[in-house]
Amino acid sequence: MKLYIKYMVSIRCKMIVKAELEQLGLHYGAVDLGEANVREDVTLAQRDQLRSALLKSGLVLMDDKKSLLVERVKALIVEMIHYADELPPIKKSIYISEKLNYDYTYLANLFSEVTGITLEQFIINHKIERVKELLLYDALSLTEIANKLNYSSVAHLSNQFKKITGLTPTYYRKLKQSRFDEL
């Protein structure tokens, strides 16, 4: 059973969640930012106890309905960015809204509420991760990568990449290549 937890943003938060699950005698698998996989069903009493305990640390156990919708949004974004040959030629907001049959503003607000980051930031982070993958394969030029991911220009991609990673795409590619050469 997957539990969704709001405001879970650090390793310390993960430690708190693990400790509270152990306290309740619940066995867990992965505990990631924003979610915890519990191996058994959680009773209503355990859920209430967990909710109270987490709240003392500033964490909020989310209702499954909202969290499931956020998970659908995440899955759609990951599929769109990492597994599609090219990003759809329409605005991401329209694409997400049409695919899930919800108003984009509602989805964006819900996403921020549940995850603690904006939907746009989540998309940018995944686009940068995809850029990193494509840079490592070295099969595409920076211009081709920018086009593939619907950046308006190479400069826009480079600026966003540097803002997120602290490195230029070219330096990142050289850095990764030099590490492969050492092996």
Write up this protein.
- The protein has 183 residues and is α+β, with helices and mostly antiparallel strands.
- It has two domains: 2-62, Alpha-Beta Plaits, CATH 3.30.70; 66-182, Homeodomain-like (Arc Repressor Mutant, subunit A, Orthogonal Bundle), CATH 1.10.10.
- It contains nine helices and four strands, in the order E-H-E-E-H-E-H-H-H-H-H-H-H.
- It has helices spanning 11-23, 44-56, 64-83, 92-100, 104-115, 119-137, 142-148, 154-165, 169-182; strands spanning 2-6, 28-32, 35-38, 60-61.
- Helix 3 (64-83) crosses helix 5 (104-115), helix 3 (64-83) runs parallel beside helix 6 (119-137) and helix 6 (119-137) packs across helix 8 (154-165).
- The radius of gyration is 19 Å and the shape is globular.
- The model has no long low-confidence stretch (mean pLDDT 89).
Secondary-structure map with pairings?
Blueprint: E1 2-6, H1 11-23, E2 28-32, E3 35-38, H2 44-56, E4 60-61, H3 64-83, H4 92-100, H5 104-115, H6 119-137, H7 142-148, H8 154-165, H9 169-182
Antiparallel strand pairs: 1-3, 1-4, 2-3
